[in-house]
Design brief:
By secondary structure, the protein is mainly α. Helix content is about 80%, strand content about 0%. Helix 1 packs across helix 8 and helix 11 crosses helix 16. The radius of gyration is 24 Å and the shape is globular. The chain starts with 6 loop residues before the first helix and ends with a helix.
Length: about 500
């Protein structure tokens, strides 16, 4: 039996990758947003949202289903090879179908003819995602490889961004570089996969066995993708690409923060599936309890901070032209908490337990809420209406999932240190808000408030002995005390004292 990967190490690798996903746009977006202006960034954002629907079709729910299925048989190379071949075959068939439908849309939909070249370039993500087999690497918990590979391509894209994007008309180039940074590394996935499975055809394939469960996961992916990108598409079709650009500035910051909040859940899905498959229920509940508390601690602080200082974040990252993005950003920030929690309850708990239908129901509810509110508010309130629709949709998803699983997850919710988190947030706000009256630059305001807000927040949690932070701190102290250098230091100190005596 192969030794399991360390969840802590996987989390560190995934956190490192998440930080690069955060830093890369943090460096590029202030530059790009000022060069392309709201109209250019809006066109690219609209194209990415449009192509995401065709990517969703080509994936057919594979990102989640593939992880769950392959993680259960990861110690059996022969069975893992057969399963991976079957899933890749399904992916490639759906990839061809997706491109056919995209070609028809570009030919017959008048609104898509203007930026046809951009849509074709962005559509490369469909093929690259299909051959990447990311679900296999995550099922095998190869997060070190995923992190290193992705970081290398992001640095290449970073250099290309500054070398090639110089004018407002370069939005097509920006679209290509964005796709390159996100998906080009999948080529190496396909080449590198021989380390984990055999490439030689095995025969005796049973592709049909995957179709029924994939249908559920595909429906889940449909609901999520539709209501996640619906606001952008509706803004583009109902109003202008400039409105999309304003909304995209707010969503971009939210997405960066969300990648940090959900980083732990990403590495826990294969482990949760494995623990349930091997009936290690005690460890499964312990992991879930820690994950939920972690999400509340992190997402609550990020949510409140960026609601308080949304103006400075928008002005620093996007520039004064994007002032209409400030209110949508404030409205959309609570989704960090809602999505963070549902990422744990839905993906980490309900999916491994086989409760996909309940997850699907929650996402359908979110889709309906988003559609109704967007239809009513976008014509009147533009990007602000879209933000309200997203906020209501994510809250609806959370409510449905909690009601469906309250018997199984009530203990995990009771373990969250609500009053300690609230006290920390109050302390962070009081310690940092006075900085805004000094009229410093946007960068200095954010730097000072970040140090004061999160410093006070962490201090209160440590002072009140929040259980998860206390446990992590004790583990760090225990590990440090067993380090050779520190151990030699204590021995040397003891020797000196003996001599003095």
């Amino acid at each position: 039996m192969k030794k399991q990967k360390s969840i802590k190490k996987n989390f560190i690798y995934n956190t490192f990758l998440t930080m690069t996903n955060f830093i890369f746009p943090l460096i590029t977006f202030p530059y790009v947003s000022r060069i392309l202006m709201p109209s250019g960034t809006g066109k690219v954002s609209f194209a990415v949202s449009l192509i995401s629907y065709f990517t969703m079709l080509s994936q057919l729910g594979m990102p989640t289903y593939g992880i769950r299925t392959c993680s259960k048989i990861r110690n059996n190379r022969k069975e893992l090879t057969r399963t991976a071949h079957e899933l890749l075959c399904i992916n490639l068939i759906m990839c061809v179908i997706s491109y056919i439908l995209l070609a028809l849309a570009l030919i017959f939909v008048p609104a898509l003819r203007e930026d046809r070249q951009l849509y074709i370039i962005v559509s490369f993500t469909i093929l690259l995602t299909s051959i990447g087999m990311e679900w296999l690497y995550k099922a095998l918990e190869q997060y070190r490889y995923i992190a290193v590979r992705s970081i290398v391509f992001k640095f290449i894209a970073l250099a290309a961004m500054f070398l090639l994007v110089h004018e407002q008309s370069d939005y097509v180039v920006y679209g290509f570089i964005s796709i390159f940074a996100a998906s080009a590394s999948n080529i190496f996935n396909f080449i590198n996969v021989r380390k984990y499975i055999d490439l030689k055809p095995m025969g005796n394939y049973h592709i049909k066995r995957h179709l029924k469960p994939l249908a559920i996961f595909f429906a889940m992916a449909c609901a999520t993708t539709i209501y996640t990108h619906m606001d952008t598409l509706m803004l583009g079709f109902m109003l202008t690409k400039t409105d999309v650009g304003y909304y995209n500035a707010a969503v971009r910051i939210k997405s960066l923060l969300l990648s940090i909040v959900t980083s732990l859940g990403a590495v826990l899905l294969p482990r949760s599936s494995y623990l349930i498959q091997t009936k290690q229920w005690g460890k499964f509940r312990k992991v879930s309890r820690k994950a939920l508390d972690f999400v509340f601690i992190l997402s609550s602080a990020l949510m409140l901070y960026f609601m308080l200082y949304a103006k400075y974040g928008i002005w620093l990252l996007s520039g004064g032209y994007y002032s209409p993005s400030i209110i949508p950003m404030k409205i959309i920030m609570p989704t960090l908490l809602f999505i963070g929690v549902t990422n744990i309850t839905g993906i980490q708990i309900m999916v491994p337990m086989g409760r996909e239908k309940s997850v699907l129901l929650s996402e359908v509810v979110g889709l309906v809420i988003n559609l109704v509110i967007n239809t009513l508010l976008i014509p009147r309130m533009a990007s602000t209406g879209a933000a309200i629709g997203t906020l209501a949709a994510e809250f609806g998803v959370l409510v449905v999932q909690y009601l469906a699983m309250r018997g199984e997850i009530s203990n995990a919710f009771r373990a969250v240190s609500y009053w300690k988190i609230a006290l920390g947030l109050a302390a962070g706000t009081l310690c940092s808000f006075w900085i805004t009256f000094l009229e410093l630059s946007n960068f200095l305001t954010l730097a000072c408030t970040t140090i004061l807000f999160f410093g006070a927040y962490a201090a209160v949690l440590l002072f009140t002995r929040e259980w998860l932070l206390r446990e992590l701190l004790e583990q760090m102290i225990d590990k440090m005390s067993t380090m050779p250098v520190i151990d030699r230091f204590f021995k040397k100190t003891a020797t000196i004292k003996v001599r003095e005596e």
